[in-house]
Amino acid sequence: RLEPVPKVLPEISARCPFVVGFKAESGLGAEELIARARSRIEGYGLRAVVANDVSVAGKEGSSALFVTKLSAERIEGTKGRVAEEVLSRIAGML
Predict the structure, then answer these.
(1) What is the pTM of this model?
(2) In whole angstroms, what is the distance from residue 92 CA to residue 54 CA?
(3) Coil, helix or strand for 50?
(4) What number of other Cβ atoms are within 10 A of residue 63's Cβ?
(5) First CA to last CA distance, the chain
(6) Rounded to an integer, what distance in angstroms lies between the CA atom of residue 34 and that of residue 53?
(7) Backbone angles phi, psi at 64, to 5 degrees
């Protein structure tokens, strides 16, 4: 029997002034994925959310959306390139 685990992100964002979340979903269009990411930003007080579709798991290339309150940018390429771009955007926010 499975029991739900409490969400950790609200506890982290209550203690840390700068938190970026991650949101993985399946089968959503970009607009719905952005809406869910922004819901997390508002609900948990996050600075940004990196959102992606789980369909990219296990593939060589990757795609993610870097979502803030005011923007949403698609990042595509190798997993390493996507990771570098995410870190670059986060560094630019500090």
Answers:
(1) 0.85
(2) 26
(3) strand
(4) 15
(5) 43
(6) 11
(7) -150, 160
Question: pLDDT grade, residue 81 (50/70/90)?
Answer: very high
Residues 41 and 57: their CA atoms lie apart, in Å, by 24
67 sits in which H/E element: strand 61-67
> Per-residue pLDDT tens for 20-79?
999 988 888 899 999 999 999 999 999 999 999 877 666 677 889 999 999 999 999 998
Residues near 85 by Cβ (< 8 Å), separated by ≥ 6? 66, 75, 77
Q: Three-class SS of residue 83?
A: helix
Q: Which amino acid is at 47?
A: R
Tell me how far apart the alpha carbons of residues 22 and 35 are, in angstroms, rounded to a whole number.
13
